[in-house]
Structure formats: C-alpha cells, structure tokens
Design a protein that fits this description.
Distance between the termini: 43 Å
Largest sheet: 3 strands, mixed
Radius of gyration: 19 Å
Strand content: 5-15%
Structural class: alpha/beta
Mean pLDDT: 84
Number of strands: 6
Order of helices and strands: HEEEHHHHHEEEHHHH
Low-confidence stretches: 1-14
Length: about 260
C-alpha cells in the first residue's frame, strides 16, 4: 500500500502571525499575543477591525498551528462572529481546528519544549507501559497498514491524560523527526488492545496523510484521512469504547 510521507516546512522566514497575515493580504483582523491568557483565546471587534487575542505561547507554536489559528479567525470574521450563520461545512471545519488548537494549548509548554530534543534515540527508548509496549504495537500496525514505511518516536502521556497527538521534534543536528504521544488513558491494565491500536493508528495516519490545503484552507482530518481511518479493523469497536468505557476508565484513573 502506497503512503505519502509529509512535507516538513523548514522555511521560517514567514512564520510569524504578522508575516502570515501580510502574505495573505488579510486586513480584516490582527492577532494580539497576550501574556495573561493561558487557557483560551478569543476574537472581538474594535471599531472597524477584529482582534484575535491569543496566549503569548502561540508565538513559539509551529507554523502550521499559527496558520490554523488564523484560519479559525477567518471563519468567524466571515460570519461577523456569529457561529449560527455559518454553513455546516464551516462549523465542522471550525470544530476540527478548535480541537487541534486545544491539543496544542493543553500541552503547550511540553510541546514547545519538545521541539528540540537532545539525542531522541536515547530520550524515547523506553516505550513500555503497564500493559502494552508502544513500539511493539506500532510495528504491528506499520506492517499491516503502511508496509513498514512510517517512522516515529513514541511515548506515553501523563497518567490520566486524555489527549493523544503527533508533533515534529528536532534533534541536536537540526534533523526533524515524528513523535507520537499516546494519552495516559490508554496506559491502564483495563484498556483493550483494539482501543490502543485504534488511537495509535489514528496518530500514524497524521504522518502518512498530513493536512491538506496549506495556509488558505487547512484540513487536518480530510476525506482521505477519514476514509483510511475506517480501514482500521476494529474502528467501530474502538469508537464504541470511546463513547462508553473510556469515560468510566478515565474517572477511575483520576479518582482511584
């Protein structure tokens, strides 16, 4: 099965919010970095212009994350900040973007810190969990669905965490690598193998099928991505587990 590995943007000459807006000739709104904001972002109208206020840590966010923030603001500005006026397609896109931004925001300090990792081969060599070894599961999925074409470092998230994500890290030689972090929710003796494989397969798809649309219209979970996701052998079973048992297990981990 052919897969396309992602293009990693290494041109940082236009990765500031100001330059991205300038290159897009976007004059309807500006982006303000607010050091007092840490857990949310917002967009308001001041006179004739809209202001997107975002946490200052987004200044160090990856180029793609900044583009996603700008796209979020564009969608809302197009409807004069009224979500009810948006078409269903735009609502779905807005929701997907917000999930992506929340993923970054919840792991903000760690993600920024992990962008540069000294000797990642040693840093991420321990992949054993309470029940599963991420390396073993990754290799099995890689062989079955991706013809062993994917490469990524792997790690477990903090105990009780619920968000898994894929990001890019840079080693001491400036070489870039994929890193998949699996939520601590899955690192529990009661977690079934199909559930772990489901979320791991999902994050592996982010490597094989990167976002489409570039700066203008960035779609993380595009049609091809969603089609491939449903090829996972236990997709429906995993989705059912997420809706039912996952929440119970998470409460048990946090209060047990």
């Amino acid at each position: 099965m052919q897969t396309t590995l992602p293009f990693i943007n290494t041109d940082h000459s236009c990765d500031s919010f100001e330059m991205i807006l300038f290159n897009r000739n976007e004059k309807r709104f500006t982006v303000e970095l607010n050091s007092r904001m840490t857990k949310s972002w917002r967009i308001t109208k001041r006179g004739s212009i809209y202001i997107a206020s975002v946490p200052a840590l987004f200044n160090d966010a990856p180029f793609e994350t900044k583009c996603a923030m700008i796209r979020w603001a564009e969608i809302l500005v197009s409807s004069h900040l009224s979500r009810s006026k948006l078409k269903q397609e735009c609502r779905t896109e807005l929701s997907d973007i917000e999930k992506e931004l929340w993923t970054f925001l919840k792991g903000d300090a760690e993600l920024i810190r992990m962008r540069q990792v000294h000797q990642p081969d040693k840093h991420f060599r321990h992949t054993f969990g309470l029940k599963f070894d991420l390396k073993v599961q990754f290799d099995q999925l890689n062989d079955r669905y991706f013809e062993d074409q994917l490469k990524s470092f792997l790690r477990w998230g903090q105990h009780g965490s619920r968000t898994s994500y894929h990001t890019i890290i840079t080693d001491e030689s400036k070489e870039q690598h994929h890193l998949i972090t699996i939520a601590g929710l899955y690192n529990h003796p009661a977690t079934p193998e199909f559930a772990l494989n489901g979320v791991l397969y999902h994050e592996m798809l982010h490597i094989a099928y990167p976002p489409k649309g570039g700066i203008i219209r960035r779609n993380v979970h595009h049609r091809e991505f969603r089609q491939r996701e449903k090829e996972f052998h236990h997709f429906d079973k995993w989705q059912t587990w997420l809706r039912t048992d996952a929440a119970k297990l998470l409460r048990q981990m946090r209060h047990g």
